[in-house]
Every structure is written in C-alpha cells, then in structure tokens.
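User: Structure please.
Assistant: Input sequence and predicted structure:
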Amino acid sequence: HRYVLSPLLTMVGASLSFLSYYNVPLCLQLHAPAGVLTPDAPPIGATTTTKKKKKYPLIVFSHGLSGTGHENTLLHLAWAKLGFVVVSVHHTDGSSARVRLYSSSLDDAADNDTTSTYEDRYYEHGPSFQNYDPNFRPNQIQKRANDLKQAVGYVTKSKNTILEDDLSSIIDTDTIILSGFSYGAATAALAMYNNPGWFDNNENSKKGGLILLDGWFYIDVMKSAGVEFEFPSQVFEHYRQSKEKNGNTIPSVFINSQQFSKYPKLYKATCDLEELISPQSSGVEKSGDSNMHVLEGTTHQNFVDMIWWGVPLFLLQKLKVIGPMDARDAYQNILHICAEFLKKNFQ
C-alpha cells in the first residue's frame, strides 16, 4: 500500500498548501497533531474550566535552494504525528522554484478579498561564477532568516487577524525548533543566531533546537572567482568568539548525505558548526549518541519527498539523482533519527 498511498499523500499535502496561498501572505504550510485542526475539532482558541488546553512545540522549516515548501511534506506530517506543530515556509525571495505573490495587503487578505491580484515568481539565478558577488548569498539568506522570524511571529500572535482561530492557543511558544534542508539548514542556523531569545541563554527557560538536513555551510567558488567562506559566516564567527559557554548548548542534530560528506571543505564546516553549537557533544559518537549522522549510499536528493512522487526508483538511481541505498530505508532512517532527537529533547 505504501507504493500507492505515499505519492497520493504527497500530492494532497501539496494541494492543501497551495490553497494556503490564498489566505496566508507569508506562504506557510501548516501541520498539527491529529484532531487539532480537523473540521469537527472544537475551536482551537476555546478553553474549558476542567482541562487546560494542550499546547504543542513548534517546528519551523526552511526549504532548499530552488526548492519549495512542499517537498518535505511527508517528513512534516511525521513530526506532526509525534505531537509538534510544523510550519513550512515557502520563501518569496527568488530562491524558490515557484511562489505566488499577492498584491493585496494583510487587511485585504483578512477580509477575504477576492479581487487581489497575484503573480508567480520563479527561481532567480545568482551571479555567474566568473563574476561572482560574495555578498549575494549572505544578503539573500538574511531575507530567508527573516522569513522564519516572521513565520514564528505570525503563528504565535494572539488574536491572529488572518486566520479565524488563534494559533497561539495551541503552540508552546517556549519551545521552538528550527529546521531546514540544504540552503534551508543554513537559513535555520542563521535564524538561530539572529534570535537568541528563542533559546535558553541563562536569562529565560525557553527550549530551542535545530534539525539540519544536509546543510550547505560552505561556499566555494575558489577556482572561478577566488572566493570561499564558511556560511553563514557570522554564525561561525560568533560561536568562535564566544569565550564563555556557561555550560549552554543548543540541542541539535545534523543528518548528512554521503555525497555531501565527500566534499572535504563542506563537511569540515558542517562538523565545525556542530562542535561550535554543541561543544559538549564532543566524543559522544563512540557511545552511539552523536549529533552528527552520515547516511551511507545517499545523495542530496534522498532528503526530499522525490522518491514518493511515482518516478521509478531504479531510474533515479541510474541517473544518480538518489544514491544506491534503498531509498525508502534511507527515508526511514531520516525519520527515525529525527524522531529520536525530538523525543529525547522535547517530549
């Protein structure tokens, strides 16, 4: 049944998220635990005198370069099943394959304005490697990180003016986990750096974490433009310059493809970032409790829902789009590692 249902679930999830464009100017795809957002559920802002309303930790996800907010739908559904509210951000800065932009204001959207116009924005290529602008990606990723901040503010704001229900009544605002794939992993890391108040910093009791999937943490165009640097550079610089850790670490898990682990500079930057963010994890790999994972026999595209889209897996492997490892087993490994991380740190 998985060969039939999984592609259908992906298409349904994508369809629902496309509908959200007409109501959510931020272009968000929302998943919640079973029964929370179903039509027959009580209003999520309702309260009872006998039982306190249950709140769920929030996961905010950033997609990869030239990707969409839909390509990890099954992963997000799995997280929601574990008891998390998941918000997938569909970035509008030109780093997405396609996104719909509306001309109406937030107030227009709140009034269900059917006359608002829109246009589709497609992926916009950066400067050529021969004329590379080293500020292009850093500037772009700042915009993406701000999208995550806006998303958090939007879904946790009381008396939301766009959605009929108050999402803040079901979200535990003291527990925010940032996640992303590829460029999105770097975006999540930068959003963490930009918003230290989301994480325990000895001044609050908030819990935060990171789930970083095959992150792009190093830009290398040395051969063509003489440019290379860790990315986002300010995140690396900040944690290197921090003299006093005060015992604080940010719960984090890095799940990497074998393909990316074979790029020495990229993988070194990934390992360095993991050690900087969670310095107390050094040496824990021997105990089987490492924050760093490499899935043997995988490529970068093993981390998206592509394998469930109906394309024959042998063809994807023949074209080396995905790795030789059984694609479904690889996906199950990703789900398992994420689940164990979430249960250990946030449940």
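The mean pLDDT is 82.
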